Amino acid sequence: MKFYRTNKQITALKVRLIDENGVNVGTLETSKALESAREKGLDLMELDPTADPPIAKIVDFSQFKYNLLKKQKKERKLQKSGGVKGIRLSSRIGQHDLELKVEKAKEFIAEGHKVQVELFLRGREKLHADLAEKLIKQFIELLGENIIIEQPLKRQGGRISALVVKKNI
Hints:
4 helices; Ubiquitin-like (UB roll); Translation Initiation Factor IF3; alpha/beta; four-stranded mixed beta sheet
């Protein structure tokens, strides 16, 4: 959060004052502006210290900080959506388990996330990478028509993966 000078922290001799309703009062001495803020039971906050004269506003500073934090929290929450969610498969997965994973992937896609489908091959499973690729292709087909394969099947050692996203209609 940005640091704001309030009340006695304001060092300028004169300030351009804005009252609690947003009306420009004009240029006043800092002491008179501070006095008018105290009469109203509010704080004098310096908005722009670089201006000449600095701009100060009469506000309830604790309420101002609360609203600012609330706004920042909301922005952070909105920023997180659209990340990558992972679905891990096994080459020995049963049909019902596969369908459950497909439903979970559909939920992620509906929320706007990208879905990374991964399948890890262990030991002798590495000899049958073609079966693993077939399983991932089947998984992608079960997801339906409204998806795009953003990153096609990619094999990295004992790991096969693909990235799918929602098709923008």
